[in-house]
């Protein structure tokens, strides 16, 4: 009889190993599932039953809270914990072990943030920085630049007044999207935002019935894309002018966005992932196993460019060439 928890799994975060052959997925139960992606695409008759290959080769508990923050840096999987960042060696995660209970972090950085009855102890978003550092968006509504080598906060970015959903970095520029309805753009060397974008103040983007929250942001050298309750908007990064409304006919909020070649990949608060061009034309509208998409992860090195899509339900869709649902793997909890 299956564990009843398996019917209520939500995939909230994902990260690929440096070799991009293994996938880590964090769930709402505080567990990490490790999948061997390489074996799914090997034609080996000795691999065993096909359904076993779609299950994680390892599943272990990190804490009792939802794992919303996860990223990889060097040889480590970094996970946001309770007022801390934990590092797990990818070599240990992919090696066969007798018991998943043996999986332990190889280092822990205590963020030493002030707590307010537990409400400020979370790490809500995490991206890797340069020189073995990380940017951690925490429950105090701030972004902290953490030196992982020395285990201390180098700089704190203050400007948001609510939960931070998403971050993106390019060079010395950092952007963050928040529940407060703003996108802050930071010089990574200064503690205050250099620019603040309020998408809900744009009449073409505003959707009052969905709220002003911004769930996703990404940027490159020239463009910034963000959305949430407001429609997805394309901004010219230097002038900070809103250039285009994207997915104007979609009625869902926006939870994920990333650039891929000449396209923008968007995961919405519904059962779809879109590919759209900078012109606004939609090239792909892909149905997903998840009724709501919360996590999107993309291979960058592999020629196949697999896209991994997770959300409500324990299934993770693996999309070949980023556009076609090819296989489905399932998180245990």
Automatic annotation (TrEMBL):
Region forming the signal peptide: none
Entries under InterPro entries matching the protein: THOC6 (IPR042626), WD40/YVTN_repeat-like_dom_sf (IPR015943), WD40_repeat_dom_sf (IPR036322), WD40_rpt (IPR001680)
Residue intervals passing through the bilayer: none
Renumbered ranges of WD repeats: 157-196
Pfam families per UniProt: WD40
SMART domains per the UniProt record, alphabetical: WD40
Source species, domain of life: Eukaryota
Alphabetically ordered keywords of this record: WD repeat
Similarity section: Belongs to the WD repeat THOC6 family.
Name the record gives this protein: THO complex subunit 6
